[in-house]
Write a structure and sequence with these properties.
25 helices; 469 residues; globular
């Protein structure tokens, strides 16, 4: 019994230490802060859960995940966290749990007990409390609705560099809530929040550039900001990327990419993406172009807007490949490999890889590493192709480089330095599995690579000499 108590005390102290460090790092280093809060939350530190929930909801230092945020905040509130009770209440409206009514009884029940605490902390200069108090005042959740006063609290939080205060203030500037509409001030403030990795700010910057609100219209810049927000798991940004690819805003028209982005957004419950995907699927049914056939094949392969039908998908991919579509080449190549014909798949992978398709680069790397499919065994070439695919954000290649290669070649000198450099080069964090799940709706399937490819990767990668993507 005494031993169990001692262990519990050690866990509690470790949680308090992680929580304190997280608070110190939160503004300047949100990613590191989130990891500390997550670790503290694992030992039931309630205030760390509250901070973790905030960051999950806003996509700050971690991929945005509203459902997980609600669960973490509710758990913290049940454990007695005053902050979490208030935060959970103030977020219920945005999560759609009370019919979008900030006056709903559940919101009042959770917000009213914490209003006094927030006001006291806000007056003491706490930017988090200032932002939450401003939100309640703006929406009339537990307090009289007063947009101008809400803006004052947002401004105080923004002056301290608090990312959610910056984002909320930017939104008020953009919409003229509580102050005069000022599109240019909104852009400046959104950019300040985006510099702190706020997914919503990045998404709204994308929309501003797409529409020319407060900035000169620049569709390519819009796509850039949407991609940044989408990389943090923002479902609206993903749906907008689908729209841009469908209609050719800032990128070449590509119905395959449109389907892919819409499908990812629908996995996160984005209703606009659901409607857009259904409309696009109807159009694809009547199309005969190579890109449209590949897009229709993807719909059938993954069940995007239509029932899943692998046989129909295979026919569509074969037709797209025959017409020269790069994604048709890749998918039909995969089908040929599954049918036991890697020799027929290799030329298709090669053609698609030459067009820069990361999926094809990775598939070709697998064949090269094992010397199958009629290609000569080439370890260095395989590793370089895998590295190129990883740098383009292809998750299986990232997994191979970041998770498995170092474990299989532990004698490699400078292993830690190389692993950190790889992490920077491919732009993925070692702790980013939650983001993968949110993006794709499934757990990452760690690739069962041939040992030959693992060892080829370890031998071929150098601390400085990376192949150009």
């Amino acid at each position: 019994m005494a031993m169990a108590t001692l262990v519990d005390d050690e866990h509690r102290l470790a949680g308090e230490e992680d929580h304190a460090k997280g608070l110190q790092l939160q503004l300047a280093h949100p990613r590191a802060a989130f990891r500390l809060f997550e670790r503290a939350a694992s030992v039931e530190h309630t205030e760390a859960m509250a901070q973790m929930g905030r960051m999950l909801y806003h996509g700050w230092g971690v991929n945005r995940d509203c459902v997980r945020a609600a669960k973490v905040l509710e758990r913290a509130a049940a454990a007695g966290s005053i902050d979490a009770a208030g935060v959970f209440g103030s977020r219920i409206i945005q999560l759609g749990l009370c019919g979008y009514n900030p006056q709903a009884s559940r919101v009042r029940e959770l917000c009213e007990p914490v209003i006094g605490v927030w006001r006291e902390r806000a007056e003491q200069g706490c930017p988090i409390a200032q932002t939450d108090l401003g939100w309640c005042i703006l929406h009339g959740a537990g307090l009289p609705e007063d947009p101008a006063t809400a803006v004052v609290w947002y401004e105080r939080a923004a002056e301290q560099g608090y990312v959610n205060g910056l984002f909320n203030l930017a939104y008020c500037y953009s919409e003229g809530i509580g102050l005069e509409r000022d599109a240019e001030a909104a852009i400046r403030t959104y950019k300040a929040a985006a510099d702190l990795e706020h997914a919503g700010a990045e998404r709204n910057l994308g929309t501003a550039y797409l529409l020319g609100k407060g900035v000169e219209q620049d569709e390519a810049a819009a796509v850039h900001w949407y991609r940044r927000a989408a990389s943090r798991g923002d479902d609206s940004a993903k749906s907008y990327l689908g729209y841009c690819h469908e209609h050719g805003y800032g990128v070449e028209t590509d119905q395959y990419e449109a389907v892919r982005w819409y499908h990812e957004a629908t996995h996160q419950g984005n209703n606009w993406a659901v409607r857009s995907l259904k409309f696009l699927v109807c159009q694809l049914e009547l199309a005969n172009g190579a890109n449209e056939l590949a897009a229709a094949g993807l719909c059938r392969a993954v069940g995007a807007g239509v029932p899943k039908d692998e046989a129909s998908a295979a026919v569509l991919f074969e037709r797209a490949s025959a017409l020269g579509d790069k994604m048709g080449h890749f998918h039909f190549g995969q089908i040929l490999v599954e049918r036991g014909c890697p020799d027929k798949a290799a030329p298709l992978f090669t053609t698609a890889a030459l067009e820069g398709v990361p999926e094809a680069e990775y598939a070709l790397a697998l064949l090269l590493a094992q010397g199958i499919g009629g290609v000569a065994k080439g370890g260095d070439a395989a590793a370089r192709l895998c590295s190129r695919a990883a740098r383009k954000g292809y998750h299986p290649a990232m997994e191979a480089l970041l998770y498995w290669a170092p474990k299989l070649h532990k004698s490699c000198p400078g292993q830690l330095r190389r692993r950190v450099q790889l992490m920077l080069m491919v732009g993925v964090r070692l702790s980013d599995r939650a983001g993968f799940v949110q993006t794709h709706g499934v757990e990452p399937s760690l690739p069962h690579l041939p040992v030959e490819l693992w060892l080829c990767i370890c031998r071929a990668l150098r601390p400085i000499d990376f192949p150009a993507a």
